[in-house]
Amino acid sequence: MGRNHTQTKFILLGITDSPCAQTPLFVLFLLIYIVTLVGNVGIIVLVRVSPSLHTPMYFFLTHFAFIDVCYSTVVSPRMLADLSSEGKTISFSACMMQFFTLTFFATIECHLLAMMAYDRHVAICHPLLYMTVISSRVCWQLVASSYLFAFLSAIIYTWCTFGGSFCGPNRINHFFCDAVPLLKLVCSDTHSSEMTIFAFVSINEVGTSVVILLSYISILRTVLRMCSAQSRARAFQTCASHLMAVALFFGTAFFMYLQPPSSHRSLDKMVSIIYTVVTPMLNPFIYSLRNKEVKGALVKCGRRLFICL
């Protein structure tokens, strides 16, 4: 992989080249990263210590929170280091590893969102079969398959991006190593690489989006047939947080990776900040503040902690 390259390092141009803006941005993104770690690790710990949350839905949520921590950690520490220093160079191997891990975790997140939608579909449309269809064994098989498929996809993405010859400029117009700005630096023809990446992104993003869409169409049909307004409200409430997470992640991902390379503009950096930095921070709040079960478990844990103290 990358055996044709001639560059030994790249220069990340970062979010901004204004010295006055770098310190405020450093403080802002450091706070966002800390909140991301505390929020997502808090979700994982809360689910582990609360028996009421030991269900398939929260099993997927713990993996989702873990991926958000990893996803953010791939980007944020490097971005913070670049904002606080003059040198913004990154070695070829470090750039390739950052790209590989980022695409690996992003692909897993796509699949986890689809699994969570399917979980809600079974819970609402087939409640009597829920524990049979979404058993513990099935949960582990689904998660393991997402990790395996993401690993294979990440290898393909990385090969297509770094397999060419980097013999020209080495300045990446981004704050992390991403496919679009990297392919602009490749000297050889990148059409086949771009088409391969586009195809696999389509399989991952469009494929999981179809699963989510079909799941929610079925959920909507079932909910509208419910006689009780309270039951309908409860069903919509359990789906609201997931739909918000789906909209945040897929909306920005579609904008970034399912458009022609010539259409990419400076706005891409802002969109990248949303899905790599902001979204992992917001997800714990989305799943906790709008979820009575999580809030109830949090209150119980707080009381137990207060009694122990």
Task: Describe the model.
The model has no long low-confidence stretch (mean pLDDT 86). The longest helix is centred in the middle third of the chain and has 34 residues, at 92-125. Helix 2 (56-83) packs antiparallel against helix 3 (92-125) and helix 7 packs antiparallel against helix 8. The radius of gyration is 21 Å and the shape is globular. The chain contains 10 helices and 3 strands; from the N terminus they run βααβαααβααααα. It is mostly helical.
What does the secondary structure layout of this molecule look like, with pairings?
Blueprint: E1 9-12, H1 19-49, H2 56-83, E2 89-91, H3 92-125, H4 130-133, H5 136-162, E3 171-172, H6 179-183, H7 191-224, H8 229-257, H9 267-289, H10 292-308
Parallel strand pairs: 1-3
Antiparallel strand pairs: 1-2
Helix pairs in contact: 1-2, 1-9, 2-3, 2-9, 3-5, 3-7, 3-8, 5-7, 7-8, 8-9
Outline:
With 309 residues, the protein is an all-alpha fold. The protein has helices at residues 19-49, 56-83, 92-125, 130-133, 136-162, 179-183, 191-224, 229-257, 267-289, 292-308, and strands spanning 9-12, 89-91, 171-172.
Strand fraction equals under 5%
Percent of residues in helices comes to: over 70%
Shape: globular
Content-based structural category: mainly alpha
Q: So how many helices? A: 10
- Tell me the number of strands: 3
From N to C, what is the helix and strand string?
EHHEHHHEHHHHH
Q: Biggest β-sheet, characterized?
A: 3 strands, mixed
Rg over CA atoms: 21 Å
